[in-house]
């Protein structure tokens, strides 16, 4: 049997994709399907760390957040990612995958704090580590948290699993004629202001020479194919 192309990866899961067809929140069959994809890869022996976004929950509270101080709203967004992380870890537990949630914000009664050596230990033990609460700082995103944690744990690649199947010349949900790149450099993605990931995340990965692959979490089997080195999504490179 062919071996996985990677030993340790950082998977950025879209919070918005967790809604499925719902208006907000966590759609049960969607999270179960995502976790089945994750379990398939974890069972290959790939060391897997995950950062999950918060758009599915934060979107639901957004009307109430109108006019709020930006930093306060951002802390609410980070707490939304803690809820998603707990739901994800529990869904993994239900299919026999051991996961540990580590939070960048101290809420010790709920999840353990992020401590880098402990995270590395869990990965070496074959546990899936879910990094919650983003970077712990307002004015950032979970894309940047994925780049940051990916660099910290020595991941070989950041895999951005989202609702589209790669990086396009424009937002494919708005521009019908957008063309998908199979590869693109960080500098070109930043210069062209491609919004699939924020520029801070792109710049951090570029500086750390940490490649990113953007792929569809909606497409069945795409995550495993990518891990096996098959052609999936868009590679963003130095
Ligand atoms: N050039 C582009 N190529 C591909 N997608 C793009 C581009 N520009 C904008 N997008 C949009 O970016 C979205 C993915 O990024 P976004 O940060 O919004 O979501 P996410 O990270 O999947 O969700 P969350 O923030 O909840 O984790 C895509 O669904 C797509 O509509
Ligand atoms: O490091 C971070 C990460 C996230 N936030 C806030 O949380 C929401 C949800 O994250 P998404 O990446 O958009 O899914 C984000 O909009 C920020 O408000 C943060 O402040 N710092």
Q: What is the average of the pLDDT values? A: 96
Separate helix tally = 8
For this structure, the CATH topology is Carbamate kinase
Percent of residues in beta strands?
15-25%
Question: Between the first and last Cα atoms, what is the distance in angstroms?
Answer: 31 Å
The description of the largest β-sheet is: 9 strands, mixed
Q: What compounds sit in this structure?
A: adenosine-5'-triphosphate, ligand LLZGTKA7
Please estimate the helix content.
25-40%
Low-pLDDT residue spans: none
* DSSP E strands, number: 9
Helices and strands, in order, run as EHEHHEEHEHEEHHEHE
- Class, according to the CATH hierarchy? Alpha Beta
Show the helix and strand layout.
Blueprint: E1 8-13, H1 28-42, E2 47-52, H2 55-65, H3 70-94, E3 99-103, E4 112-113, H4 116-124, E5 128-132, H5 142-152, E6 157-162, E7 183-185, H6 186-191, H7 199-207, E8 212-216, H8 222-227, E9 234-237
Parallel strand pairs: 1-2, 1-6, 2-5, 3-4, 3-5, 6-8, 7-9
Antiparallel strand pairs: 8-9
Helix pairs in contact: 1-3, 2-3, 5-7
Bound molecules: adenosine-5'-triphosphate and the ligand O=c1ccn([C@@H]2O[C@H](COP(=O)(O)O)[C@@H](O)[C@H]2O)c(=O)[nH]1.
Please, could you describe this protein's structure?
With 238 residues, this protein is an alpha/beta fold. The protein has a single domain (8-237), classed as Carbamate kinase. It has 8 helices and 9 strands. The longest helix is centred in the middle third of the chain and has 25 residues, at 70-94. The model has no long low-confidence stretch (mean pLDDT 96). The structure holds adenosine-5'-triphosphate (ATP) and ligand LLZGTKA7. The ligand O=c1ccn([C@@H]2O[C@H](COP(=O)(O)O)[C@@H](O)[C@H]2O)c(=O)[nH]1 binds at residues 15, 53-55, 58, 73-74, 77-78, 80-81, 134-135, 137-138, 140-145. One of its GO terms (molecular function) is ATP binding.
